[in-house]
Design a protein that fits this description.
Blueprint (H helix, E strand, L loop, with lengths): L11 H36 L6 H8 L3 H7 L3 H22 L6 H16 L23 H24 L5 H27 L3 H4 L4 H15 L1
Amino acid sequence: MDTTAGGVPPLSGQTEQTEQTEGRRERNKRRTHEALIEAAGQLFQERGFESTTVRDIAAAAGVGERTFFRYFPSKESLVLQQVRDLVPLLAAEIRRRPAAEPPLAALRNAVLEVARRNGANPAVLLAASGPLRVVTPTDGSGDRHLLFDMEEAVAAALTDRLVREGADATAEAASLRASVLSRAGVGVLRAVRLAYGRLPEAERSSVDPAELVREAFACLDAEA
């Protein structure tokens, strides 16, 4: 092995030090990312989405505005990312629900459980902030794409349940049924978001979003 100047490979100690430095950097980035999301969620609950600024979020997280924009291009993007992080948790919870629960009941209970476990408002899963207003990036695509991704994730989880139960004649029939039920269920959640978001600010504190979710799914059950 060449050990002369210019041909010396990195020393093992230097390599380990570099890896440790990169590891610390990634951990710090992850902590900052989590701190921004946590601070935003708290401020949205206290002040509302519209009344919370990027400066407020950055200050609460202990960083500057420039640092915020290194992680998120806007506060809307932060909310959408938070929701995207919850979607796989929702799908996993749907798969874990008791087999005796019908598909829409499994979706409803999964939404409530994921929200409870993560300290989130149930309708945050529909790309809404504290007051459940629609938040959309400047290109108008974020909310639309997120809803589609959520419908697909829910449909896949429901398909797994239906195939496991063997209630449908074929896998294709189970997939179609799951797709229909998924979009019906996500439609219920969208209705909850809109109904809650249209309430005057003064009335929202007296409304339990979780109970609103239950009432909305009951409406769908009544039409079956």
